Amino acid sequence: MDQYVIKGGSPLVGEVEIGGAKNAALAIIAAAIMTDETVLIDNLPDVNDINVLLQAIEGIGATVTRVDCHTVKINASNISDFNVEYDYIKKIRASYYLLGAMLGKYKRATVALPGGCNIGSRPIDQHLKGFRALGADIDIEHGKVVADAEVFRGSNVYFDVVTVGATINVMMAATMAEGLTVMENVAKEPHVVDVANFLNSMGANIRGAGTDVIKIRGVKRLHGTQYSVIPDQIEAGTFMYAAAATRGDVTVLNVIPKHLESTIAKLEEIGCEVEEFDDAVRVVSKGNLKSTHVKTLPYPGFPTDMQPQMGVVLSLCNGTSTVTESIFENRFKYLDELSRMGGVSKIEGHSATIEGVKGLSGARVSAPDLRAGAALCIAGLAAEGITIVDDIVYIQRGYERFEEKLKGLGAIIQKVSSEKEIQKFKFRVS
């Protein structure tokens, strides 16, 4: 099992290029099977989740051609299997997007109930509510969602909660439904807009993505396209917060600053200097950071996927901070691991109180999920001494060349797979 071993205490300095948005790319790959023509997608992140989903669509009959590690051609004209097996779903939750894509195009689909990161309950009831409103019959049988529709018609869909997954999934299904679909109380995240733009580039008629109401006029067929995925705001935020924690000076390249507004606002609140450019953001941290309060909210609020990284930074700020998690209930597991490094916090329900400490010390910790794993690496980079992060398979699901990009900023980090390699690393850096 791979691990990261980190020698902390050095500021991160330099430039890092941000890859394509994983959460947008996953939905776009699923949507690509909605046409019989060839689709070319570039700026894909080369991470495990993407590769698993590409295997899943190959498994149902699509032809997938890797042009390079960030570009793929997909042709779904030979899909004949409408059953997506659990082996794919248990690895990545986003495989459920194939439900909306196949329902939209083929009017039937069987998809295993999803797995993914263990960060709390993420029911798909709103997805199923939307599919039923469009005319699908839905059954749950033997751990699978079985959906079919004799006639798929546009409808009004009001989501009880703001949900990115359901917004995208129902939007895909409605793209090829008869008539007009009006979706209200929808998610406004950048990747929702990116998926809508991708579908529109294939001939869909979607308006209002990025607002509270999305209107979709169904079309009979979609055509091929070439499309580039937006930059990953969470990867960008992770490196920006790593700069804050290590008293560094980091410029993230290939970003859309507008997507980072809430992330930037909190950095400025705690005392970092932030400079925005057309497609880059520079973060300078001179230490002596001050506490603040954070509440995760749907976009344009502070993203839940940045909450663990923020929590680590707040543990190094002067004073007492509070973090309220309003999206997922199990997102504070990293704080137990952080306590091994000297972090001080108290969790009560959906809120955590974090007491700033003068410094963290290296320890052996375990990544409980994707973003928490990245956050613990940030803690290790800021800590004195050696930190070992176990279970980095989570991190590799969502960050491309993570340790290489950190090394490019001056981090002392290595991926290892044995105690012998850990000891060699310790000897080398001592």
TrEMBL record:
User: Can you name one GO molecular function term for this protein?
Assistant: UDP-N-acetylglucosamine 1-carboxyvinyltransferase activity
Give the Pfam families listed for this entry: EPSP_synthase (PF00275)
Q: Where in the cell is it found?
A: Cytoplasm
Q: What reactions does this protein catalyze?
A: phosphoenolpyruvate + UDP-N-acetyl-alpha-D-glucosamine = UDP-N-acetyl-3-O-(1-carboxyvinyl)-alpha-D-glucosamine + phosphate
Where in this chain does the record put each Enolpyruvate transferase domain? 7-406
* InterPro entries listed in its UniProt record: Enolpyruvate_Tfrase_dom, Enolpyruvate_Tfrase_sf, MurA_subfamily, RNA3'P_cycl/enolpyr_Trfase_a/b, UDP_GlcNAc_COvinyl_MurA
Q: Which Gene3D superfamilies match?
A: Enolpyruvate transferase domain
On whether Disulfide bond is a keyword of this UniProt record, the answer is no
Enzyme Commission number, as recorded: 2.5.1.7
Active site (record annotation)? 117 (proton donor)
This protein's major location comes to cytoplasm
**Keywords from the named record:** Cell cycle, Cell division, Cell shape, Cell wall biogenesis/degradation, Cytoplasm, Peptidoglycan synthesis, Pyruvate, Transferase
Query: Looking at the keywords, is Zinc-finger present?
Result: no
Summarize where UDP-N-acetyl-alpha-D-glucosamine binds, as residue positions: 93, 122-126, 305, 327
Pathways involved: Cell wall biogenesis; peptidoglycan biosynthesis
Quote the record's binding site residues for phosphoenolpyruvate.
22-23
Q: Which residues carry this modification: 2-(S-cysteinyl)pyruvic acid O-phosphothioketal?
A: 117
What family is it from?
A: Belongs to the EPSP synthase family. MurA subfamily.
Q: What does this protein do?
A: Cell wall formation. Adds enolpyruvyl to UDP-N-acetylglucosamine.
Q: Which NCBIfam families match?
A: murA, PRK09369.1, PRK12830.1
Q: What is this protein called?
A: UDP-N-acetylglucosamine 1-carboxyvinyltransferase
List the source organism. Answer: Ohessyouella blattaphilus
